[in-house]
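Late entry, S-adenosylmethionine complex.
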Amino acid sequence: MLTSGRNEGGGERTMSAPTAIPYDSFIAEFYDYIPTVTVRRDLDFYLSGAREYGDPILELGCGTGRVLLPLAREGSNVAGLDISEAMLARCREKLAGEKDEVRRRVQLQCGDMTDFDLDVTFRLIIIPFRPFQHLLEVEQQLSCLRRAHRHLSPGGRLILDVFQTDAQRIHDPAFLKETPPLREINLPDGRKLVQTERTAAFHRAEQRNDVELIHYIKHPDGRQERLVFAFTLRYFFRFEVEHLLARTGFRVAELYGDFDRSPLLDDSPEMLFVAEKI
Ligand SMILES: C[S@@+](CC[C@H](N)C(=O)[O-])C[C@H]1O[C@@H](n2cnc3c(N)ncnc32)[C@H](O)[C@@H]1O
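Prediction complete; structure with ligand written out below:
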């Protein structure tokens, strides 16, 4: 992965090595407030998946618990795995404020979704909001799916959520420019945050884009910072994902183009695969 957490306003704040974990940076603190995240409309989809397929549930790349905690509040036993200690720390903080019965339903573990062994099986495994797109190499993608397969009980389901690739976004120079600022957010400690984003580079032969989420921070004392969360995203095409799933022992049971369970069409924003372990 690329760099994370560059402060371009007044010198470098953090600059991670190529192997570092991008989410172990300032982004863990902002994650639950930024528009990229708060506009997600996927919770009902995952809650209804939990009702349909049952628990225990494993969320791979659970982050700050945005999806995991509502699942546990609704009564599911949920395990969460994430590679970022900083994201998990936020999740633990939020979990500490939940009722005892919710806390008892949640297990969290730091680990890599391409290489984990939890010694338990699940009825449902979910990978909400792009963790799978952080797996840049085919071998990583296959390892993740094989691990998921091994951790599912017979007939268990895997829900894989990736965006449907928009052809313009993989070559059009317009996307190299910063987007207009989104609405200003008030952070709990009095800072104000405005977010923009841009594609930093296209790598079509590798099916990857380098992406930057740019954060302009105003401190209560008037100081300003520009923090860049930079990462690389792998994009997928429908039949590529179907082939990956077929190679790892899954059958695509349902396929949707959005969280309202509408069919996958040319202009659908998402590709939501509900895959059954065979
Ligand atoms: C966009 S966040 C999604 C978090 C959460 N699923 C949600 O819907 O809000 C992506 C998460 O994937 C995690 N991640 C990326 N690569 C991972 C890996 N190889 N193993 C486990 N987690 C990973 C990141 O640390 C981050 O927390």
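The first strand starts at residue 6 and ends at 7. Will revisit in the morning.
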